[in-house]
Specification:
By secondary structure, the chain is an alpha/beta fold. It is 38% helix and 19% strand.
Length: 306
């Protein structure tokens, strides 16, 4: 990376335990100072629900942001995916739930009213692949979807974040685990969320900037995983009342080997998922380029590589 003045970067992430878990080392707890060497970068963390982040990506507002994988093709000219920072459902994912026991086939056979956490989300894109597009998709804040299903305001809903673990406690019934369905159909994990960086940062910071930034992001996740107890204590506050055991289980689902690097299998999953979304009427993703850390392949210090 070409020597340059400090680059102050905005980083947007979802207000959920897994994102909070992996990015706190960039600023320290409560902004106390970075827990890792962040080189020429400084970071300002912002929390927004994933659909808000998807919308903001359309205007390139944030330097780095979480994004729904299904929405990345719409902003690929502005943002590149990084190898580190993804949420991948390895045989599990968002849950399609209802107030009473119901099969996916029954739901698909009628024009149903289905709550989703955003019209740009992977949750919606996958539900459409499962059920078909001819339904009344209702966008609701993610934290209210379970309540809407319970109240009978919708026929079904797709719950994300901690709702994937707590829906049964709320008296809801599982129709389909979208990640399990995807795995059964394609024998691949479901790429749910990614981390992206503005492509023009390379020009601003000089050659190698994006690779250096990807390296810092990787080390943030590695530090968080190596200091799990501290990271969990910080992350739990983003879980909307869940206990530490539930927070730990949720973080384990989405901060793991896939988060450190998509790996070959993760890249194959990306290609297959975006191809399926394109075939169903979505945007052609074109070439799927991923920014790798300058250091090259990742160390195998935290779990097996995918």
């Amino acid at each position: 990376m070409t020597q340059a003045s400090t680059m102050h970067l905005s980083l947007g992430h979802s207000p959920d335990p897994d994102d909070a878990f992996m990015w706190w080392p960039l600023t320290g707890l409560d902004g106390s100072g970075p827990a890792i060497d962040i080189g020429q970068f400084t970071f300002e963390l912002e929390t927004h629900d994933i659909e808000s982040l998807n919308r903001r990506a359309e205007s390139g507002e944030l330097d780095i942001t979480a994004i729904s994988i299904a929405h990345w093709p719409a902003v690929r000219d502005t943002y590149a995916l990084t190898a580190c920072g993804a949420s991948v459902g390895d045989g599990y994912g968002p849950k399609l739930v209802a107030r009473t026991p119901l099969s996916a086939e029954t739901l698909a056979s009628k024009r149903a009213r289905i709550a989703v956490p955003g019209m740009r989300t992977t949750a919606l894109a996958t539900a459409r692949l499962l059920l078909g597009k001819d339904h009344d998709w209702v966008e609701l804040p993610f934290e209210t979807i379970g309540e809407a299903v319970s109240a009978g305001e919708v026929d079904a809903g797709v719950v994300i974040h901690e709702g994937q673990l707590t829906f049964a406690q709320d008296g809801l019934h599982l129709i389909e685990d979208l990640g399990a369905w995807w795995m059964s159909k394609y024998n691949l994990p479901l790429p749910l969320g990614g981390n992206v960086v503005r492509r023009d940062l390379e020009a601003q910071g000089g050659q190698g900037t994006l690779g250096a930034l990807a390296d810092v992001l990787r080390r943030s996740v590695e530090h968080a995983l190596s200091n799990r107890e501290t990271s969990l204590a910080w992350a739990q506050q983003f879980g909307r009342g869940i206990d530490m055991e539930t927070a730990d289980a949720f973080v384990a689902m989405y901060v793991n080997k896939w988060t450190l690097d998509f790996g070959p299998r993760g890249r194959a999953a990306l290609q297959e998922f975006l191809k399926a979304v394109h075939a169903s009427g979505g945007i052609d993703p074109g070439e799927i380029d991923i920014i790798a850390p300058l250091g090259g392949t990742l160390a195998q210090s935290v779990g097996d590589q995918p």
